[in-house]
Amino acid sequence: MAAAAEGVRLRLALRRLLLRAILGLIAAGFALAGLALAHLAGVLALTPVLGALRAVLVVLAVDVVLAMLLLMMAARLQPGATERDAARVRDMAGRELTEEARLLRVLLTLARWRR
User: Fold this and answer.
1) Is the overall model pTM greater than 0.70, yes or no?
2) pLDDT at position 27, please?
3) Percent helix / strand / coil, the chain, rounded to 5
């Protein structure tokens, strides 16, 4: 009964996750389209003042500078205290599990030896 309920729960959770992913992709598509239109609007706004080529180059330069700033920020991201603590707990739990497995192997060996 519990296994069947868990199977239903997992299927529903997977369906929800898939729907979220699809909706996220659609939202990302709209965001990209909006960004493209914002670029076009910028070029069109600058064209009367700078000319078409210079307007495109200005928008390109702004994009490159923003991309470089975002990449530098991404490169500087380091794990936070909570993430480091979680990794330590995971490592401690793994070591404890290994030690318990060793102990279980020894006890099983002793149990077989006593038979």
Assistant:
1) no
2) 97
3) 95, 0, 5
